[in-house]
Each structure stands twice: as structure tokens, then as C-alpha cells.
């Protein structure tokens, strides 16, 4: 039996504690999980149980539930895992459809049940055996499909959130280092390929190397870099301290942190187009949630320090609470995409709720 949820809706979100805000966001999103009417467009990706959209929410829910020791929320995470049959998405070779494995792994670690990862191991073993070495250049498909030829590997920035933590956690469950080593090698490849040496930010994929906004500025997508920043935090904490690739992950995380605090808006949000703040003036919460989580995690774990990081984290937390309705719905969320787009106050998405839960989990001791 799943124990009852103890959290009511919020009365004053801007004054809510991390516990109150997180519980309200979790409650609202769980209730809305089967009803996509709050979306402007009912993307199939949003309702797909094993896909990256729901996985991003459950990654946040899992972390918040574990930090809280909330048996109701932990039970919902376990139920989600078994409802999925412990399987990856329909494209198990694709990094986005590997994101769910991180949730299965955390449940397996808590339950002491490594057998939960057998299906994931089978797919990951196959990927390792294939040993794809194709270019990371993103070439648009000509057959009408949505996949580029490079996506047999991780050739887009979002993949750093979706895949490497899942592979590293699979090593934690199984004791097999091959999964972590594969993830570390491929993550190095994507960082070296997509990171801009001048700004320290990452392009979403190779199609954006020469792209410019209407103001003639480079296109650096807020949520895309949020996926990277939050993904690196999750990956680093799942790696042994002596892993040879860990220093690169830490260095990249710290480089991003130092850059991010210089471009945060005064209202606490980050520009949707990071280096062109006047392109889109509305708030955007999915990037901000992941940046806030990364800063809070970095401060809590000693990877960054200094007043500029503390102040940036706190401004982001205030901004995220201001964007959360009394019901627990997180608004001002850019919808599914790959580059900067506009937002509205009443638009939400599961990954923004997941980002808010990640952030709240790191703010529990800072109320």
C-alpha cells in the first residue's frame, strides 16, 4: 500500500520552504501526469512513460523523495519503474531513451535488488559491443525522420543529462566498470566537440556552430546548457573520486558555473538565449531550475564557493518560487524544442517540475 501524501497546495509560494514547495510541485505533477490539457500542444513525448520527458520529472522526484525520506513519493517512484517494466525507451540506443535507467538504478540501490537492471544491462552491453565511432556532426535526415545520423552516439548537449548518470548508476548497481567507463569516454567526446572555448557554454549540437540570433549573436540555449550543468552534477556524484575522467567533468562544471553567474538576469532567471538577453524577455524556468540545482549542488558539495554563487543560487530560488502557482504548477516553461523559444506564465512541462524538485532537494537545509 502506498502511504498518503502529506503536502497541501501552497498559500504563498514565494515564501514557501523547500519542503513545502517541493511537495506541492510533486503533488501537482503527479496528479496531472495523465492529463496533458495544461500543455499548449499535447506532445506524444510528454505522455510516453519510458521517454525522456517523464524521466526528467521522475529523476527530480526520486532525488527529492530520497532527500525527504518521503515514503509516499518513494513508493510512486518505485511504482513508475515497475509500471515501465524496467525497460528503456523504444529507442534503447538513443541517449534520451536511456534516462529512465537512472531511476531504476536508484530504486535498485535502495531496495538492494540488482536484478532490476538486467534489461538495462542487456541494452547497454549491446551498445558497448557495437562501439559506434561515427562523427558527432548532426546531419539533418532526408527521409522525414526526426533522428540525425550522429545520434547513435551522444551528439547533442541534452544527452549529458539523459544518459551518463544512468550509465554511472548502472555501474554502482552491478559493480561493472564498463558502463561508467563508456559513459565517461562518450561524455568527454561531446564536451570536446560542443563546448565553445570562448564562452565556456555548449552549443546544443553542431547545427548551431554558425547559427546566429536575429541580433547577430551566437545561439546558446538556456535549457540545453541547463541539461549539461545539471547532468554533470549528477554524473560527477556517481563517479569515484579517482576516476581518470572525473577532473574533466569537474572542470567543465566549474567553467559553466563561473560563466552562468555573470549572465543571470536581475530577476533571477537566465535569458532563454544566454548571450542574447533581449531576444526573448519573458522568464524561462526549465533552464533556471537546472542552473539553480547545479549551483546549489556545487555549493553543498564544495565544488564551487563564494558569495557570487550563493547570491546567484538564492536569486534563482526566489525566481522559481515566484513562477510556481499555489497549486504547485511551475509556469513560464519553454516547451519541447532545441533552441530558444518564448514562454507564457501558464505553460508548464514535466521536466520543469523535475528541475524544481532537483533544486528543492538541494535547498532543504537553506530555508
TrEMBL record:
Keywords carried by this UniProt record: Hydrolase
Keyword Hydrolase included in the entry's annotation: yes
Coiled coil location: none
Any GO BP annotation: carbohydrate metabolic process
Listed SUPFAM superfamilies: Six-hairpin glycosidases
Pfam families: Glyco_hydro_88 (PF07470)
Entry superkingdom: Bacteria
Keyword set includes Hydrolase: yes
GO molecular function, one term: hydrolase activity
Matching InterPro entries: 6-hairpin_glycosidase_sf, 6hp_glycosidase-like_sf, Glyco_hydro_88, PolySaccharide_Degr_Enz
Position of the signal peptide: none
Designated name of the protein: Glycosyl hydrolase family 88
Species per Swiss-Prot/TrEMBL record: Aurantiacibacter marinus
